[in-house]
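User: structure tokens for this one?
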Amino acid sequence: MTATEKTEFTYSIFISTTPEKLWEALTNGDFSEKYWFGFRVQFDLKPGGKMSILPPKGMEFAGDHAGEVLECEPCRKLVYTWKQADSAEIAAKRDGLSRVTYELFPMGETVKLRLMHENLLLDDVDSDPTKFKGINNGWPAVLSSLKSLLETGEAMVLKPTCKE
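Assistant:
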């Protein structure tokens, strides 16, 4: 594969909540641990601010997905860079960090959340839908758990591992 072979992942989900509650859920570390299977997000919510996603105890091998906030429009849009926890072989293929965008669209009693993860390698995608490995398997699980938590008060109970 050449360094120019890129892909992106886009996923939309509709959540019965308000933009304010969804924004808080996306950006609050204590709340994120509930739906992101123990992972904790930390944001300095301003352009140039730091971002990190810290793994729970026992999943340190997943790495700290650090990055930088590029855009921040509270309750509307958040864009940040994402540093993968790569092997040396995969890291050598990258020509920069990937970028994650959350866009919130109020639609009556519901909010459409659109996630875009760009500047990905084909290696970031996994063809086995029964694993949590790969951007294409991880994001839907995280966002489905977020939806469940906001709508029912209960997050999904899964034991994801990235080593599968």
